[in-house]
Design a protein that fits this description.
about 425 residues, alpha/beta, Rossmann fold, GMP Synthetase, Chain A, domain 3, 12 helices, 21 strands
C-alpha cells in the first residue's frame, strides 16, 4: 500500500543522487541564510563548496536542541518571518521551548510525508481516523490532521483527553483508525473495560502510535485489548514533526523518507559515525525544509538502521524501534538503564498492569532504583505470598538482564499517574 510509489520505491542509486543534489543545495542555503551555521562552518574551516557528496556529510558540525534554544525564537530560520506560515514549539522541562517554523511549501511536504506514513499504516480514503494527539503548539495533532486530509480520510480532530468522550465518539462515529501515544491507547483500553464497552463494539482496525518509545510487548498488549493492528510512527518537531519515518504493513522497521532526510547513526560519546547495523544515536539532516533546515541534528534517540530491501517493496532505509533516549538513560551504579528494558521484562512476565514508574534516589552517596509496578485489584487483594513471589520474580528478572539489584514495589490500581500525552516513566529524586 503506497501513497507515492515513485519516491517510496526509488532505486538506491537514483535516491542517493537525489540526496546529494539536495544536500549540496541545503548546505548552501544554511551557510548564506543562517548565521549560526555560517559561523559553525567557518570555525570548522568549511566552505559550502567543500560538500560535494554524501561522504562529505560527516565533515559538517552537529546541531543540538540546545543550539535551537540558544537561538530562540527565530535565529535558526532560513527565511524571513514573512515567509513563515506556521510556528510550532516543543515544550521543554526547563528553559525556553524549541521553536520551529514552516513555509507554505514545508506544510505541503509535511502533508505529503504524513500521507505516506498513514497509508503505509493502513489509512485509506474511506477510513475514519480519530486524532487523539494534542493540537496546538505540539506538532502531533496537526501533522496527522493534514496527512489524513491529504489522503481524503474522514478526520475526527478530538485532540487528547476526555477519555470517556473519546470512546463514545469511537463507538458512535465508527472510528477505524486511532492516532495517539501508545500509553494513552492503553489508558483508553483500561477505561473501556471500566465502562463495560467491549472491543467488538468498535470498528477500530488500526492504531498509529508514536511520540514515545514503546516495546513489542506493549504492542501486543494494545493489539489484544483493542483488537487492532498497531503501527509505529516516528518524528520530532525539530526535523519536521511526525512523518519522518513509519512502519509498513510488514512491521519490520520504520521506513525513513530518505528523499527528504539523511539519517546517520553515531556513537553518542565520541560523535563518530558508526557502520550500518550498529546501535547508537540517530542523527538527521533535512534536505527539503525551507523554514528551519537542520544539519546533522542529534535526536538523542537510540536505534539502528537496516539498508536491506523490505518485503513491501520500499527501498528507503528502515530504523528499528527506538529503545530509549540518551537523555532518558539512567546510570545506576555504573549500569546504563533504559525504561524500555524494564517495560519489556514486565510485559514478558505478564502478571502486572502495563503501568510502571522508575524512582531513582541517592542514599548515603549511593544511587538506588525502585521500580513501582501496578497490579490488578484481584492480585493486589490476593494472598501476601503470591505478591511476594511476583515481587521476587520481577527483581530477579531485572537483575538477570541488567546485573543490577533493585527494589520492586507492587502498588494498587490507578496508583501511578496516567497521561493523555507522553507517559512519565522516571521520577528522579537525586539532587544532581
Amino acid at each position: 500500500m503506497y501513497w507515492n510509489k515513485a519516491y517510496e520505491c526509488m532505486d538506491r542509486g537514483r535516491l542517493e543522487a537525489l540526496q546529494t543534489e539536495r544536500l549540496i543545495h541545503t548546505v548552501q542555503r544554511v551557510y548564506y541564510n543562517v548565521p549560526f551555521y555560517r559561523d559553525r562552518m567557518q570555525r570548522s574551516g568549511l566552505q559550502p563548496e567543500d560538500i560535494q557528496s554524501l561522504d562529505d556529510l560527516k565533515k559538517l558540525p552537529f546541531t543540538t536542541k540546545q543550539d535551537l534554544r540558544d537561538n530562540y525564537p527565530y535565529g535558526m530560520f532560513a527565511v524571513p518571518l514573512s515567509e513563515i506560515v506556521r510556528i510550532h514549539a516543543s515544550s521543554g522541562t526547563t528553559g525556553k521551548p524549541t521553536v520551529v517554523g514552516y513555509t507554505r511549501q514545508d506544510i505541503q511536504v509535511w502533508s505529503e510525508l504524513m500521507a505516506r506514513a498513514l497509508t503505509s499504516g493502513g489509512t485509506q480514503k474511506d477510513s475514519v481516523i480519530q486524532i487523539a494527539y494534542g493540537y496546538g503548539l505540539f506538532t502531533g495533532g496537526l501533522g496527522f490532521h493534514y496527512g489524513a486530509e491529504r489522503i481524503g480520510a474522514s478526520v475526527i480532530p478530538i485532540s487528547g483527553g476526555n477519555t470517556k468522550r473519546q470512546i463514545m465518539l469511537m463507538e458512535d462515529f465508527g472510528t477505524t483508525v486511532l492516532a495517539c501515544t501508545p500509553s494513552y491507547a492503553l489508558h483508553i483500553a483500561e477505561t473501556m473495560k471500566e465502562m463495560g464497552i467491549k472491543r467488538e463494539n468498535l470498528k477500530l482496525k488500526y492504531g498509529i502510535f508514536g511520540a514515545e518509545p514503546w516495546t513489542e510487548a506493549m504492542r501486543r498488549e494494545i493489539e489484544e485489548k483493542l483488537g487492532i493492528t498497531a503501527i509505529d510512527i516516528y518524528g520530532l518537531s525539530e526535523v519536521i514533526g511526525p512523518g519522518v519515518a513509519s512502519e509498513c504493513q510488514y512491521r519490520s522497521g520504520l521506513h525513513i523518507f530518505e528523499d527528504h532526510f539523511i539519517p546517520e547513526i553515531i556513537d553518542p560519546k565520541t560523535g563518530k559515525t558508526l557502520p550500518p547495523g550498529s546501535t547508537g544515536e540517530l542523527v538527521f539532516t533535512t534536505l527539503t525544509k525551507e523554514g528551519l533546515p537542520v544539519i546533522r541534528y542529534r535526536t538523542r534517540d537510540i536505534t539502528s538502521l537496516d539498508y536491506e530491501p523490505c518485503a513491501c517493496g520500499r527501498t528507503h532505509v528502515r530504523m528499528s524501534k527506538v529503545i530509549g533516549r540518551t537523555d532518558d538513560m539512567l546510570i545506576i551504579r555504573g549500569v546504563n538503564v533504559f525504561p524500555s528494558q524494564i517495560e519489556t521484562i514486565l510485559m514478558e512476565i505478564g502478571e502486572t498492569e502495563p503501568h510502571y514508574l522508575l524512582v531513582v534516589d541517592r542514599v548515603d552517596n549511593l544511587d538506588s532504583l525502585e521500580v513501582w509496578v501496578e497490579v490488578s485489584d484481584k492480585l493486589f487483594s490476593d494472598e501476601v505470598r503470591r505478591l511476594e513471589d511476583l515481587n521476587r520474580k520481577i527483581a530477579n528478572e531485572i537483575h538477570s538482564l541488567l546485573g543490577l539489584t533493585v527494589k520492586v514495589r507492587l502498588v494498587g490500581p490507578k496508583t501511578i499517574e496516567r497521561s493523555e500525552g507522553k507517559a512519565k516513566r522516571v521520577l528522579d529524586r537525586r539532587k544532581l
